[in-house]
Hints:
212 residues
Amino acid sequence: MCPLVNLIDMDKKEQILNAAIQLFAEKGFEGSSIRDIASSADVNIAMINYYFGSKEKLFEALVQTKASNTRIVLDEIANDKTISSLEKIDRIIDAYVERLFKGRLFHRVIHQEIMLGHREPLQQIIVNLLYPNSEIIRGIIETGMKKGEFKKVDPELTVGSLVGTINQVLQSKKFCNLFMRKEEDYDPYDDPKFRKRVIDHLKQLMRNHLLK
């Protein structure tokens, strides 16, 4: 297959995946039909079937793409031997906050499925694809403890505290504004100052928790 055809395929796939994220976030998985996705992506239904096979497989490809992209970044940080364990945690916080804030619609889709729990196969897909990313962070924490860079902590719950704080902020714009005492029309997710506030808080939290 020529490179041009490959590029067209990638563009079309991305177009479909972006449309799916938008619709899944607005209507949920059940409320979004293949026809809706095709219409939003400006492609025909046959093209979605050709690339993905079904709505379930499209969802799986969506999670796979996002999780894999994040894993590449995490692996690069984890395998960098030139920086300390704390610097790795700092860089992970930077990366996680940036990616999750920018990809907040995807984040909403994932958490809708996890919280509703209506479709066990989809839940299992989410867990299987996202869990390795948490394992990378846990590994950095455990390595830091073995090297004496970190005090002894609960690695699993430390990861939970880190990711859970971001999840809390991203729960909903309305909730975030109420929780952070902001005006109703304020958009926290598009404000670089708020993003930095979250990053700075998480770094301080991890320093207080991990350092001796």
